[in-house]
Amino acid sequence: MPFLTHAAKRLLVLIAAMAMLFVMAGPASAQWLNLPLPGTPRTPDGKPNLTAPAPKTADGKPDLSGIWHADGRFLDNLAGEGVDVPMHPWAAALYKQRMESLGRDKPQLHCMPHGVPDAMLVSNIPFKIVQTPRELMVLYEEFNQYRRIFTDGRSLPKDPNPAWFGYSVGKWEGDTFIVESAGFKEGTWLDNGGHPHTDALQITERFRRPNFGSLEMDLAIDDSKAYPKAWKSVTIHFKLLPDTELLEHLCENEKDAAHLAGK
Predict the structure, then answer these.
(1) What is the value of pTM for the model shown?
(2) Pairing between strand 202-211 and 127-131?
(3) I need a surface site. Which of 111, 121, 140, 173 has the fewest CB within 10 A?
(4) Which residues of 149-166 are buried (b: 16+ CB within 10 A; e: fewer)?
């Protein structure tokens, strides 16, 4: 599509992705109904008070538990709108191809995982955080997948068997939860736009919960095989889905892939 501007291409990618996601997953609001959960702060009229202080665990750390969704439709570029991330030539060519083909080869269109961090970046696909003293679990509604972040003091494995969601360990620095991840299998995308990665990928995530209804995340991406230098994301904002629960969602044998646009 040489006659289209970069912005127009991004819009077409967005439209194609929206069409795919409306078929593959219901909207974030289509969860359990009328489920007032205990422990939820409320306004005088009984509605969840999303501006209340963030909850704390028994040891005084912020409790990140809850059902969340990205505050925004899609995130095509982790680095921010209009920011070009320096890439090695092969990675730049692959990224260009993914944009121009309207994301037709997205892994999830073939029943494969979104990956990290892309699995958290689509607003109508919620995820649930379950925080315990020894690990934090992220349960993704799409395809009923999960990720484990260990907080028991272990180190990342030295020679891991590559995994779609990698291997993750976490620790607290004040009220910020810091996650180090590595050992990723190649094939997932970093964001909706298609930034690639290799098995050398290392990700650092920094989570903060400023109040009951909000969660923030910053990322640092380090993959020397795909990018000449490490780079950072924009701050990603998530909103709480109160008084609800995840629903079952499975990939139905790639029934949608044949109907998608793109080269």
Answers:
(1) 0.84
(2) unpaired
(3) 173
(4) bbbeeeeeeeeeeeebbb
